[in-house]
From TrEMBL:
Keywords: Coiled coil, DNA-binding, Phosphoprotein, Two-component regulatory system. GO terms for molecular function: phosphorelay response regulator activity; transcription cis-regulatory region binding. Gene3D superfamilies: 3.40.50.2300, PAS domain, Winged helix-like DNA-binding domain superfamily/Winged helix DNA-binding domain. It holds the Pfam family Response_reg. The keyword Coiled coil applies. It comes from Candidatus Sulfobium mesophilum. The keyword Metal-binding does not apply. The lineage of its organism: Bacteria, Pseudomonadati, Nitrospirota, Nitrospiria, Nitrospirales. This is Uncharacterized protein. The modification 4-aspartylphosphate is found at D55. SUPFAM superfamilies: C-terminal effector domain of the bipartite response regulators, CheY-like, PYP-like sensor domain (PAS domain). InterPro entries: CheY-like_superfamily, PAS, PAS-assoc_C, PAS-like_dom_sf, Sig_transdc_resp-reg_C-effctor, Sig_transdc_resp-reg_receiver, Tscrpt_reg_LuxR_C, WalR-like. Residues 5-120 form the Response regulatory domain. Residues 210-262 form the PAC domain.
Amino acid sequence: MPKTRIMIVEDESITAMGLEKRLTKQGYEVVGVVASGEEAVQRAEKTSPDLVLMDIMLEGEMDGVEAAGRITTSLDVPIIYLTAYADENTLLRAKVTQPFAYLLKPFQERELLVTIEMALYKHEMEKKLKRSEQWLSATLKCIGDAVVATDESGSLVFMNPIAEELTGWKHEDAMGRNVAEICNIVDEKTRAAKMGELLEMIGRDAGAHVSSGAVLIDKNGRELFIDETVSAIRKEGGIMGGIVLVFRDVTERKRMEAAILESEKTMRKQSEELIESNMALKVLLKQIENDKRIMEEKILSNVNKLILPYIERLKRNRSMSDELAYLNILEANVKEIVSPFSVRMSSALICLTPKELQVANLIREGRENKEISEILNMSLETVKTHRQNIRKKLNIYAKRVHLRSYLLSFQE
């Protein structure tokens, strides 16, 4: 382990020699013994000691206080003042240089050693604390959240660059002002100020309080949605020494959430409208199909009832033999015209003979046996025989099934 390096500044040579001997004996390394302030500054810059023992009252233009001030300006080194007497003005000047200790001459060796070790320890702790503060400050400046801190009275003592950006306040202008003035936070819905509520909550317990649904109004009146966390800084005994407030801008997130909700609302509305349109279309298509079927049935019925029977009678009239060819053509054309209307029925009744098919069509139209007999020029018994054959071929013979209703079902 390297020895602690100490510089002695003492204009009394005997005292200086005694100090050097004591320190060397205790394992310290004396890097210089000087008698003037000017020489002390030069030697310190050259040797960079770990500690300086400085006599306040030095002969020459530069006393110990001025020399210590110049040394600590360029070097981070603890100073221990040695003095037998000093006026009040000199002591006030000495305080400004922030010495680590005072030793009143004459002093005991043990007193000297304890003071040196305490000064070295205190200096090391201050260095660690300074490094921690530097690390913490750098971290708080780099993080993406805004951070502000206050003292026990609520006055601002720290704010990072993100907090400056969000609040619109510069660091130097905000320091010392009340946190409620710098961080003007209101409830999103009620617009009531929230800072008082936050301070009241952390005053009741030491935990951190996280909340959302808040709006930050910056120095220029711009409004930002934020999520914030606030916690107390506790001193010894649990006394509140201030607060730390951390908040982040969630305006863009809020905007996206609102856009998503609006999009979902629009999609639901469009979906409902589409369902309603589909239902209306189904009803319309069903109605069109039903109207089409009724029209087909009427056309087919009218042709079978009002045209084909008379064509059949004309064909049986022998006096019109010359026009028979025309009647056959007319019959074929009429059947061709109405053939699409009876496709469904024909496909179901494909097993029937032409004559049975004629009978089936007339039954379907509601004709009685006598009417069918007259139209087709056949006996009643023949009509009945055809009816039985039709039932057999449709597998409904000897069943309690109404033949006309069954035939009508083939067009539905």
